[in-house]
Design a protein that fits this description.
The chain is α+β, with helices and mostly antiparallel strands and 442 residues long. The chain has 14 helices and 20 strands. The chain starts with 7 loop residues before the first helix and ends in a 9-residue tail after the last strand. ATP binds at residues 30-35.
Length: 442
């Protein structure tokens, strides 16, 4: 980010150059110093520059009585600047960390309000970045966490941008005083039971008394660490490219990786690559919980290990690791015969089945493997279904939900498995679509 000593409006405009053609600029307006300065800067710039449409969003958490007056204050500030304001009330769920619960509620609201090609701006500054770095360092964060707050990231259908990360709190205060701005002082910002407030009021003053440039140096360190994380991400993409191989069960639509290329890497590169892949799928485990990956990776070849994570499970089967979540973790139940086989049959928690080609004569039913099933094959006679699935290396998690077509007690077909999926002489095959188009994966 630009760090020149030019005046604040010019620096802000330079930092926002990549987003000059957005559909809408929205400001997360708490009414505090940071967002008040940001709002004033942008409203002033909009009088002289051709900028996207500008509006503000105030999130009302309802956590303290004094906050009830804040929406009106924000409205008066926005009215004076000619900026439309939207007030959004949220419910903060209780939990171990009120700070985190309020943040989660706030960003959920931001996500719901940010549309395609919108930019949502927040007022975090350089001092906030330094506090974030120190806070995460004390919690034992890795390189990604110590990279601090990114200048931009996705939110909702648009982007969240922090254009003041190279500006100090002192600069914002100076600007506010020069323009006679009025802002809200949140009483909770003085409550030192909150970790960030403790760092701000008790720790940072001591550090800056000894090292006046401490906050600037820490913010600069965050930039270096974010660059290092970028290199780790590039390495992860190189390693994942070796593991994202073509396989015959891609039609399942389940994210998976080939195990052997991963296992050939050093432990650190395995964690880096797998963490990069999992980040889009689940909240990542802490350092201690990564032992679950070692257990899954090193389990015996005849085992079916599972690593349970926050938002799903990683399974190992058929030489691959598979990410399962949502409906893939619910046992499917079939409740009725297939009364009208000419039509698609929807399966509870298991997509749908249909015939390609002719429709075999009724009565028919769909069921799932229970164990001990035998299938008659024209060229091979009676064959144990378990052996047939082994021959085709069907992943373990699929076996209990592969739709089996029965007429009476006879298995006529196993959906989607070539050679077992129908009667070619009768001109039909059984097709299974594991998830409906609108279901997707978590």
């Amino acid at each position: 980010m630009n760090s020149s000593k030019s005046d604040l409006p010019s620096r802000l405009l330079l930092n926002l150059e990549p987003w000059r053609h957005a559909a809408h600029w929205r400001i997360a307006f708490s009414g505090g110093l940071d967002s008040t300065v940001l709002l004033h800067l942008l409203a002033t710039l909009a009088n002289a520059e051709s900028l996207p449409a500008l509006s503000a969003i105030h999130i009302h958490h309802g956590l303290q009585a004094t906050a009830d007056a804040w929406p009106q204050h924000c409205q008066s500030v926005c009215d004076a600047l000619g900026v439309p304001l939207q007030v959004k009330r949220v419910t903060v769920k209780g939990g171990a960390s009120l700070e985190r619960a309020a943040r989660d509620a706030r960003y959920a609201a931001f996500s719901s309000l940010t549309q395609t090609n919108d930019v949502l701006m927040t007022g975090q500054h350089r001092d906030d970045q330094a506090e974030t770095l120190l806070f995460r360092l004390l919690r034992g964060a890795g390189v990604r966490g110590l990279g601090g707050m990114p200048q931009q990231r996705p939110v909702g259908q648009g982007a969240l941008v922090r254009p003041l990360l190279d500006v100090s709190r002192a600069e914002l205060e100076s600007y506010a005083q020069a323009h006679q701005l009025h802002w809200i002082e949140d009483p909770s910002n003085q409550d030192r039971q909150f970790s960030r407030n403790y760092l701000r009021h008790q720790v940072m003053p001591v550090l800056t008394e000894r090292w006046p440039q401490a906050q600037a140096s820490m913010a600069r360190t965050a930039v270096h660490l974010r660059e290092a994380q970028g290199l780790l991400d590039e390495l992860a993409q190189i390693d994942l490219a070796q593991a994202q191989t073509v396989h015959e069960f891609a039609w399942l639509g389940v994210p998976s990786l080939e195990l052997a290329p991963l296992a050939a890497l050093s432990d650190a590169r395995q964690r880096n690559a797998l963490g990069h892949w999992l980040e889009a799928l689940t909240r990542l485990p802490d350092a201690d919980h990564w032992s679950g990956w070692i257990d899954l990776r090193d389990a015996s070849s005849d085992a079916s290990p599972i690593w349970r994570l926050a938002d799903g499970e990683l399974h190992r089967s058929a030489g691959r690791v598979w990410w399962l979540s949502g409906r893939w973790l619910r046992t499917p139940v079939i409740g009725a015969d297939w009364q009208t086989p000419a039509a698609t049959l929807r399966l509870a928690d298991n997509g749908r089945v249909m015939f390609h080609g002719q429709t075999p004569s009724a009565p028919l039913r769909i069921a799932y493997r229970q164990g001990g099933e035998v299938m008659q094959l024209a060229e091979r006679g009676s064959r144990d279904l378990k052996r047939l699935l082994n021959e085709r290396a069907v992943p373990g998690f699929v076996r209990g939900r592969l739709p089996l077509l029965f007429r009476g007690e006879e298995i006529l077909a196993v959906a989607n498995l070539p050679g077992l999926d129908g009667q070619m002489d009768e001109g039909w095959t059984l097709h299974w679509q594991p998830t409906d188009e609108d279901q997707g994966l978590s």
